[in-house]
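Schema walk-through. Below, the input block comes first and the output block second. Nothing else is stored per chain. Lengths vary across the set, and this one has 146 residues.
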Amino acid sequence: MLKSNFFLKLGGRVRDKYKNHIWKDAKDVYDQKFKRYSNEYSKRKSSGDIRRQAADSRNTRAPYVTGDLRNDFSLIKYDKGGFQVGWATRGSIVQSLNKRGRKLTTKSQPFPQKIIEFMDREVFMHIEHKILPSKTKRHKVIIKGS
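--- output ---
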């Protein structure tokens, strides 16, 4: 019904929207701002004293220090049945963050609601425009001269 190249494009767009939501907007999967860090950790993070710390991670509440977790989130596979995004090697860090209240994804809420709605819209538009028959009808109008 749907082709694999559709899911390749959709998967890439979903991956990018998710990365922006979690790491740029610093919101969890429930669209809430991430909670504050402890005072001790917050001071270390804002001062840049953490080993391998990325410079742009200092002033964010997002679960971002080195960038490894963010960079590991990718489009893992796609085919004509759908696509899979996730962490290739750092899934245990995601589980640890979830236990500490920093929900990146859960079984009941795998993506933020706005990304789920985006996927629904994209699939619906693709089916409506590419698969269903056109609703446009052509009529030939003949005007006879007087």
